[in-house]
Write a structure and sequence with these properties.
442 residues, alpha+beta, TATA-Binding Protein, six-stranded antiparallel beta sheet, five-stranded antiparallel beta sheet, 10 helices, 20 strands, 38% helix, elongated
Length: 442
C-alpha cells in the first residue's frame, strides 16, 4: 500500500514538473512578463503615494484603477513587486527543469558513441548511401582520413567507423537557459538591493552616500556646474565637475559628467540628469550680498523660479523676483502682480519702492542621479552567456557511420543531423565524390 502511494505521488510530481517545464507554459510566462514590463513604463515608478492619488483618483488608470488600486496591485514599483519577482522565479524554474529534463539528456546522448554494426541499421537512418568499392576496407581507411581533414571526430572499429561534428551545438540550448536564469537573478537582485536617488547640488555642496549601517561611504561634491546654451538661449548640454571623497575626506576621483556621459565608480553610476536654480544673491541698499533660496512657481509657467522679498522692515510691501534661467533677466513684480523692474545679474542696482535692489548672481544647481545596481554584472554576464548559447545553437550536430562490406564489395554510409538536414544531404554526395576521387588517384 505504501509503495502504491509513493508511485502515485511520483507520477503526480512528474506530471507537475512536466507541466511547469512545458514550452507553451514558458512562452506564456514570457508574454506575461513582457506585458508586465510594459506596465512599468506606463505607470510612474517609485513616486510618492500622493502622486498616484492625484493622477488616478479623478481619472482612473485605464478607466478601472484609482490610486488605491494602483498601490495595492504594486503597479507603483512593478519590477520589485512580489508578483513580478514571482513570475521571474517561475520562468527561471521552468528553464531549469527544461534543461534538466530535456537539454541535459540530449547533450549526454550526443556525447555517447552509437555503434551500428550492420548495413541494415544504416539503411534505416535519415540519410543512407551505398557505394561500390574494390577494397571496402581500404575505402573505409581513406574515408577516415578524409573526415579527419574536414574536422570530424572519429571512433574507429576494424570494419566500421562512427564520426561526428558540431557537438558544441548541443551545448547551445543549455547555455541559453543558463544565461536567462543568470540574467533574471541579476535583475531581481538589482530590483531588491539596488539604490536610486536624485539630488540637486549647487557648486560647493556635498552629498554623503551611506552604507547599510548608516556610515558615510563616499561623498559626492560638485565643484563646478555649467549650462551650455545655443544662440537662442535654449539649453544644449549640462556639465558637472565632481570630486568623490572617501570617509576620511581624501579625494578618490575627480571627473566631469554630462548628459549621456555618466561616471561609473565602485559599482555605482552618476548621471547628469537635470538642473535647477538653487539661490539668488541680492543686495538690499548697502547690505552685504544675501544668498537666498529660490523656489519654483508652476502657476507662472514651466521652469520659473522666484522669491518673495519684503521691502520694509515690518515685512510689508513685498515684491516677487522671478526668472527662468541663471542668466536672467530677473523680473520684479509688485504685490498686485504688475511688473515694475527688470534686473540683470551682476548689473547695477535699481530702486524698488524706495529701496535700492541689486542682483549679484544666480546660483544654478546640478541634478545628479545616482544608481547603484549590484545585479548589473550578473545581467551582463547572463546576456553574454545567452548570446553565446544562441550562436552555438546555430551549429548543426552531424553524425556519420560507415561499414565496409568486403563480401559484396560495398561501403555503406548513413547519417543524421539535428538541423539543416538539407545542407547535410547535399554534403554527403560531395563527400562520396571526394572519396571516389581519392580511390581513383590511389
Amino acid at each position: 500500500m505504501l509503495n502504491l502511494s509513493l508511485d502515485v505521488t511520483k507520477r503526480q510530481l512528474g506530471r507537475l514538473l512536466g507541466w511547469i517545464s512545458d514550452l507553451r507554459v514558458a512562452i506564456g510566462l514570457l508574454l506575461v512578463i513582457a506585458i508586465s514590463s510594459g506596465l512599468g513604463t506606463l505607470v510612474p515608478q517609485k513616486e510618492p503615494t500622493a502622486l498616484y492619488h492625484k493622477l488616478y483618483d479623478t481619472q482612473p488608470w485605464l478607466g478601472l484603477l484609482n490610486g488605491d488600486a494602483v498601490l495595492k496591485l504594486q503597479l507603483d514599483h512593478v519590477y520589485s513587486s512580489g508578483w513580478f519577482l514571482g513570475l521571474l522565479a517561475w520562468l527561471g524554474l521552468a528553464l531549469i527543469l527544461c534543461s534538466w529534463r530535456r537539454q541535459w539528456p540530449a547533450l549526454q546522448a550526443s556525447l555517447r558513441w552509437i555503434d551500428y554494426k550492420s548495413p541494415r541499421q544504416l539503411s534505416k537512418l535519415t540519410l543512407a548511401e551505398t557505394i561500390a568499392a574494390t577494397n571496402p576496407a581500404t575505402s573505409l581507411g581513406q574515408l577516415e582520413q578524409l573526415l579527419k581533414q574536414q574536422g570530424w571526430t572519429i571512433q574507429r572499429q576494424p570494419d566500421r567507423l562512427a564520426a561526428r561534428r558540431g557537438v558544441a551545438g548541443r551545448v547551445g540550448p543549455l547555455l541559453v537557459h543558463a544565461g536567462l536564469v543568470v540574467l533574471m537573478v541579476g535583475a531581481a537582485w538589482g530590483s531588491l538591493a539596488g539604490q536610486r536617488q536624485e539630488r540637486f547640488l549647487a557648486p560647493g555642496r556635498e552629498l554623503d552616500l551611506l552604507n547599510s549601517r548608516g556610515e558615510s561611504q563616499i561623498t559626492v561634491a560638485v565643484d563646478q556646474f555649467q549650462i551650455e546654451r545655443d544662440p537662442t538661449g535654449r539649453p544644449e548640454q549640462f556639465r558637472s565637475a565632481l570630486t568623490l571623497k572617501g570617509p576620511d575626506g581624501t579625494s578618490l576621483k575627480q571627473a566631469e559628467i554630462s548628459v549621456n556621459h555618466p561616471l561609473r565608480f565602485r559599482g555605482m553610476t552618476l548621471y547628469q540628469a537635470d538642473w535647477t536654480l538653487a539661490a539668488i544673491g541680492v543686495q538690499l541698499g548697502r547690505s552685504p550680498v544675501l544668498e537666498l533660496p529660490l523656489q519654483t512657481f508652476p502657476q507662472l509657467g514651466d521652469q520659473i523660479w522666484g522669491i518673495v522679498l519684503p521691502t520694509r522692515p515690518d515685512g510689508s510691501q513685498p515684491v516677487l523676483l522671478s526668472l527662468s534661467n541663471e542668466q536672467g533677466p530677473v523680473t520684479v513684480f509688485s504685490a498686485d502682480a504688475k511688473p515694475i523692474a527688470s534686473l540683470v545679474p551682476g548689473g547695477e542696482s535699481v530702486e524698488i519702492q524706495g529701496l535700492p535692489l541689486r542682483v549679484d548672481n544666480v546660483l544654478a544647481a546640478s541634478g545628479i542621479l545616482l544608481k547603484r545596481d549590484p545585479g548589473v554584472p550578473l545581467v551582463y554576464s547572463g546576456f553574454g552567456i545567452a548570446l553565446l548559447g544562441g550562436v552555438l545553437s546555430l551549429v548543426a550536430t552531424r553524425q556519420l557511420w560507415a561499414i565496409s562490406d568486403p563480401a559484396n564489395g560495398r561501403l555503406h554510409l548513413g547519417g543524421l543531423c539535428n538541423r539543416n538536414l538539407t545542407a547535410f544531404a547535399r554534403e554527403l554526395p560531395l563527400l562520396i565524390t571526394s572519396l571516389q576521387q581519392v580511390e581513383q588517384a590511389s
